[in-house]
């Protein structure tokens, strides 16, 4: 199920290192009860049955992309309407100025011109600083997930 509108997002995050960040992308698991015949698709890395909810959070927007719990965050995002629209029409489909504005994500996502991710492998001191700043700014989406699950407690476990 996709809940996506054509959005023109505006800067939200006040960041230590990055300017022009308009939101963060990440995934969370919603634990669900499924029929035995379908359980294999829904078993996640925690060995529980769940759906993968991947969202982009800005000041007031969640874009939900749901897949079985066995799906990786990057796969869910790659198959999302938003990602497909950006690939088809370019980042200006969502971002007013692609030179100025972008999203941030964790290492589960591929680096793109419009998506900042951490450096991987052996990193220099500057790269480690970049990763630390990115991590501290990405915590905002974790707060969004906490607010979402706290507001709608039923979402923490669906039968």
From TrEMBL:
Decide whether keyword Lipoprotein is in the record: no
Q: Output the Pfam families linked to this UniProt entry.
A: DDE_Tnp_4 (PF13359)
Single GO MF descriptor: metal ion binding
The protein depicted here goes by the name DDE Tnp4 domain-containing protein
Q: Where's it mainly located?
A: nucleus
- Which cofactors are required for activity? a divalent metal cation
Give start-end of the signal peptide: 1-27
Regarding protein family, the annotation reads: Belongs to the HARBI1 family.
């Amino acid at each position: 199920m996709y809940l996506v509108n054509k959005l023109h997002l505006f800067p939200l995050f006040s960041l230590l290192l990055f300017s022009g960040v308009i939101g963060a992308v990440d995934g969370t698991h919603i634990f669900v009860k499924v029929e035995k015949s379908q359980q294999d698709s829904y078993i996640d890395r925690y060995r529980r049955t769940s759906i993968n909810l991947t969202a982009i959070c800005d000041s007031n927007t969640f874009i939900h992309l749901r897949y079985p719990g066995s799906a990786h965050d990057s796969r869910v995002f790659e198959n999302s309407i938003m990602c497909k629209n950006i690939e088809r029409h370019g980042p200006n489909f969502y971002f007013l100025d692609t030179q100025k504005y972008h999203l941030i994500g964790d290492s589960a996502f591929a680096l793109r011109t419009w998506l900042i991710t951490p450096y991987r492998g052996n990193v220099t001191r500057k790269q480690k600083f970049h990763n630390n700043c990115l991590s501290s700014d990405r915590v905002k989406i974790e707060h969004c997930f906490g607010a979402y699950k706290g507001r709608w407690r039923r979402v923490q476990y669906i039968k």
